[in-house]
Structures are given as structure tokens and as C-alpha cells.
Amino acid sequence: MPETADSIASDYLVVGAGASGLAFADALIQEDPDAELTLVDRRPGPGGHWLDAYPFVRLHTPSAYYGVGSLPLGKDRIDETGENAGFYERATGAEVRDYFAEVASRLERSGRVRILTEHEHLGRGESRAQIRDLGTGAVREVEVRRKLVDARYLEVSVPATHEPSFEVAPDARLVPVNDLPDAAGPETRYAVIGSGKTAVDACLWLLENDVEPDRIRSVRPREHWFHHRRHYQPLDLVGETMESISFDAEAAAQAADVEDLFARLEDSGRVVRLDPSADATMYRVTMLSPDEIDALRRIEDVVRLGHVRRIEGDRIVLQQGEADAGPDVLHVDCTAVGLSNAPATPVFEDGRIVLQQVRQNSPSFNAALIAFVEAHRDEDAERNRLCPPNPYPSGIGDWPGLSRRTWEVEQRWLREPDLARWIGETRLNLLRALPEHAGEPAVQASVERFLQSVGPAAERMRELEKLEGE
Ligand SMILES: Cc1cc2nc3c(=O)[nH]c(=O)nc-3n(C[C@H](O)[C@H](O)[C@H](O)COP(=O)(O)OP(=O)(O)OC[C@H]3O[C@@H](n4cnc5c(N)ncnc54)[C@H](O)[C@@H]3O)c2cc1C
User: Fold this and answer.
1) Nearest to residue 93, comparing CAs of 120, 132, 53, 35?
2) 452-468 in b/e burial notation, b at 16+ Cβ within 10 A?
3) How deeply is 417 buried, as exposed, middle or buried, from its count of CB atoms within 10 A (0-12, 13-18, 19+)?
4) pLDDT in tens, 312-334
5) 37: closest CA among 356, 391, 374?
6) What is the pLDDT of residues 83-120, one digit of tens each?
7) Is the CB of 296 inside a 6 Å radius of any atom of ligand 1?
8) 57 lines ligand 1 (CB under 6 A)
9) Can you name the residues that pair with 132 across neighbouring β-strands?
């Protein structure tokens, strides 16, 4: 079909130019020399949710294995000062945005990728899709010669673009976390609403900006299990990561139930909660450094009365009670869901690819992996065997399935020489330096502990999944 003002053609139409769409496109053009792609995104630039992130956001994992396969992010340095001292550097939000802008421009310079920002994909059309230019309103047809790639299935929800689920009286003060730096004042008290990573970041930002802990209240419906940042380190520190993976398998092999599993993980230092006396049920695979944990524990005013229903001038009304507030209290909305809770669906379907998590906690790696499998396998059944979806977790009951699926699929990858080689080489693989450190006694001990435990662990997790599902 010749291209006109009303219609374009492309092998792949990728909906979403966030980290996932870009990592997929980057890998596919490396692995399939003929593929041409068009990426569309509603946002004004590439990079997805990072364009709307709060000003003090940074990656919570190291930059060393984030982004796309063909372009490093940062310099793979270990920080020497600050709360991240001793760990691999983590890009700021601005650095991530600049990086994705550079990625997009390199992809376009390849001559095989077209990126249309401020363009919306309309509906579910596959071989003939429609996109709308949000600037002009013009609608164009896209002839999709091979596949539609849904790179928005796990779209992130951030406070800047979501609607809070509670009411706010006109005399109450509420800001989205993005506005916190501008709204902060010397006499202000703060009520940070939310249980997740964004709320934690807001509290840390306040503490770093010399707000005394007794002027900060944390309103959190659920307690969160966090990971220790030392357990997500690549390259020269990969031994720490391997050790943590072995702790997971060992705890899982012996766990009586999910609560016992988390008690074992906590004993090994694999997971941590801010208040060890409070029941923690939330698990979103977020991580903190020891300094951050210590800082957050200085905040003693914690409201645990369920979800917020209404904020009034003098009080905050929650599911299970209320707490006083006042005109000097600035409520900070950190309640957006963040990672999507979308259920699993096949990654490869007729004429369609739905990008999802496969290996836990590796969004960039997973999108590139799916592109590799698309390029090098012919049958969707085989592709799906190598890329089974693994939904993001939200609570402790999701840990057994999340880990078991990761262990099982990693075993399958090892039996595929081309895939195993690619995984061994891609910068997006957290464990890529493991072979270089395999001779170190501590690493050997971790690998042995993992290999001894992983079979029984997967079996035990299947049983717990069944119990959790009953
Ligand atoms: C604050 C924060 C920090 C994080 N830090 C890390 C980290 O350190 N390490 C890590 O591995 N992961 C991290 N994550 C996880 C995060 O999910 C990924 O890093 C990644 O950025 C998600 O990218 P995405 O492309 O899947 O989704 P998004 O960034 O949400 O991109 C999806 C895109 O699809 C577009 N879109 C949706 N519908 C349409 C349509 N109909 N037409 C056109 N476009 C459409 C949207 O505009 C959006 O830009 C973090 C997440 C958050 C929220």
C-alpha cells in the first residue's frame, strides 16, 4: 500500500513509546534485519511515565541494566557518597528522560523506525489500525504487515495523571507528589498518603530537605515489604544478587505457608519492613538502602486506618476511623497504583504481541527478550513457552507464583543455546556478570545453595499457590 497523508504502512505497529516499546524496538531491529516499526504514543515525547514523574524521582534499580540493549545508561559507576553509597549509580528522572530521547533519535536514524508522539492508537484493530494525531485531530490508517505490539498493557499510573479515589473538601490542602517541592513551606506539617515507593520517596525528600520527622505523618493503608538494594546489584557486585536469589529458593523450599515464607525471607535479610511490629501484606518488589530505611523509621506518626475516604479542613476520614488534621497540614497524594495490576494474557497471539513481565522485576529485559523470541522462533506456541506472562505482584500471596514462574522459565532459557547466549550478553540482564565471578567461593556457595533448593522450592510454591487460590 503506498503511503499517503491518510495512510501509512509498517511491519509492526507498537502502541506505547515508553521503556517497554523502546526496548522492544531496539532489540527487534538488531535481531531482525528486515523489520520496520512504527511506534505511537499519546505523550508529547518518548519515555512513557517518566515524562510525568515527580521531580525528585530516580531509578530504584541501578542504571546499569535499565533502558535498551544497544545504549548504556550512565557509566556503571558505584556511588561513593549519599544514601546509595556502595551501590551502582541510579539515574535521575531527568537523566532517564534524556536517555530515552537519545534512544528514540537513534532508532529513527536507523531508517527503520518511525516514532509518532502525540498520536493515539484507536481501538483494537490489528492488520488495519487507526491512529489519531492529537495535535490536528486527523485520523490515519496504518496497514500492519506483521503484528500489532501492545506496549501499553502494563501502562504505569502516576499521581500527576491519575484522579485520587477520595473526596477533598475545598478547605483541605492536597497536592500531587509532583507539586510537593513548590508547595512545601517552613511552618507546614505533612500527611503523605500512600503505602508504596512514591510515598516513601516523598517522605525521604522531606527528610532530606530538613523537615523534622515529627512534622511528617505517613498515612498508609497497608504495610509494605521492601527489598534491600544490595540484592539488586549487577557487574562486580553480582555475588550479592546471587546470594539473595539463593535465599529466596532456600526459604521457599522450607516454607510452611506464605507468612512463614516472609518470616524466613526477613530472617535472611532478603526483605525488610519499616515497622517490624506491624503486619505487612503489600509486596511490589521495591527496594530501599539501609540509610533510607533508618531515615524512614524516624517518622513515628503513622496512620493505619485503611484507605482514605475524604479529606476535610480539620480531619482526614478513613475506612476504619479518622485522624485530626488542620489548616497547616499539606496532604501529599502518592496513591496512584504505579505498576499495573493487569492480569496475565498470552504474550504472542495471532497478529498481536502483548508485552508483559516474564522474569520478575526486569521490565527492560523482558521487552527485549520478547523481541528476540519474536525474531528467532516461528511458532507462537513455542514463543509463548519461552515467554509466559508473569503479572506484577501486589501482595505477599503473589510471591509464590511470581518466583516460581521466574525460576521455571529461566530453566527453559538455559536449554536454548541462542537464547542463553543472548541473555548472557545483553546489558539488560542483571546477572550477566555471574560467569566472571563464578570462581569466587561466596558466589559458588550461593549457586550451590540455589541449585539444591530451586527444585523443591518450585514444587512448594505450586502448593502454596493452590492454597492461596482456595
Ligand atoms: C516512579 C517509578 C519508578 C520506577 N523505577 C524503576 C526502576 O528503577 N527499574 C525498573 O526496572 N523499573 C522501574 N519502574 C517500573 C516501570 O514500570 C518501568 O521502568 C517502565 O518505565 C515502564 O514502561 P512502560 O513502557 O511499560 O510503561 P509506560 O511508561 O506507562 O508507557 C506506556 C505508554 O503507552 C502510551 N499509551 C497508552 N495507551 C495508548 C494509546 N491508545 N495510544 C498511544 N499511546 C498509548 C502511554 O502514553 C505511555 O507513554 C518504575 C516505575 C515507576 C512508576
Assistant:
1) 53
2) ebbeebbebbeebbeeb
3) exposed
4) 999 999 999 999 998 899 999 99
5) 374
6) 899 999 999 999 999 999 999 999 999 999 999 999 99
7) no
8) yes
9) 120, 139
